[in-house]
Specification:
The chain is α/β, with parallel strands linked by helices. It has 2 domains: 136 residues, Nucleotidyltransferase, domain 5; 103 residues. A hairpin with a 4-residue loop joins strand 1 and strand 2. Helix 8 packs across helix 9. The radius of gyration is 28 Å and the shape is elongated. The protein starts with 14 loop residues before the first strand and ends with a helix.
């Protein structure tokens, strides 16, 4: 009689693979609901990931027609991995990390190994019909995702502009100066005086000038993006179809 670990299970219906992603390596838990194995691959190594699937199929004689289901928490890697897995025939879902239920004991003992084990168990439940186990993230098309970039860049620049403004005002307040920032702030620096009427220290004045210059660069980029938005909206409105109507609204 062959040892248990060498036995083949021809009636396996599916392979399940949970991924815990990080910058340097991906934790992988792959199994069939009865047997599983923990592995790690270098982050971004799709060939290594597919090799783990092939090795598991070979070890447990999983038929080639048995589907492979996988999941990972949507995050820094975005959706390229989702699209890549789909292109290799893997039925993947990107999961909203805030919707994953973790019991308090597991939370206190949080490790990548526990995280991937939790994902693996919930993936099996999800595939078997438990839609409430988590929330699946809607993955946009490559074109839709690309169209969002201009808006997202604009939001980041607005935030960055606010950071520069707050930094300048904070540096001034440190020396007893409260004032609104005008377009001629760079020229005002040479005449500004601190709380006791003495000129601003030279190093402070230079730092403020650099911070103001960075703020002006951000404002210039914001203006350029605003003009680009107006051009694209005008072009879409002149065209036909739902996208033009939505932009016009």
């Amino acid at each position: 009689m062959r040892p248990v670990q060498e036995a083949c299970y021809e009636n396996t219906t599916a392979v399940y693979m949970a991924l815990e992603l990080s910058n340097k390596q991906w934790k992988v838990l792959i199994g069939d609901g009865h047997h599983h194995r923990h592995k790690a691959v270098v982050a971004g190594d799709i060939s290594g990931l597919l090799e783990q699937i092939a090795l598991f199929r070979a070890k447990w004689c999983v038929p080639s027609e048995a589907p492979v289901y996988s999941c990972y928490e949507a995050g820094r890697d975005g959706f390229w991995l989702h699209r890549c897995l789909l292109s290799h025939g893997v039925k993947n879902v990107a999961v909203d990390s805030s919707s994953i239920k973790v019991d308090q004991r597991a939370r206190r003992m949080k490790t990548d190994r526990l995280d991937v084990k939790s994902l693996y168990g919930q993936l099996i439940r999800y595939v078997k019909g438990d839609d409430d186990v988590w929330r699946v993230v809607h993955v946009p098309s490559v074109e839709d995702e690309d169209r969002r970039r201009l808006y997202r860049e604009r939001e980041r620049l607005i935030s960055e502009q606010g950071q520069h403004t707050n930094r300048i005002k904070s540096l001034l307040v440190l020396h007893g100066i409260r004032m609104e920032l005008r377009k001629d702030f760079a020229e005002q620096l040479d005449t500004l005086c601190q709380w006791d009427g003495t000129p601003l220290p030279a190093e402070l004045r230079d730092e403020l000038r650099r911070e103001w210059h960075r703020r002006e660069q951000v404002q210039a980029q914001l203006k350029a993006l605003h003009e680009l938005q107006k051009t694209r909206i005008a072009a879409a409105i002149c065209g036909e179809g739902p996208e033009g109507r939505e932009l016009a609204r």
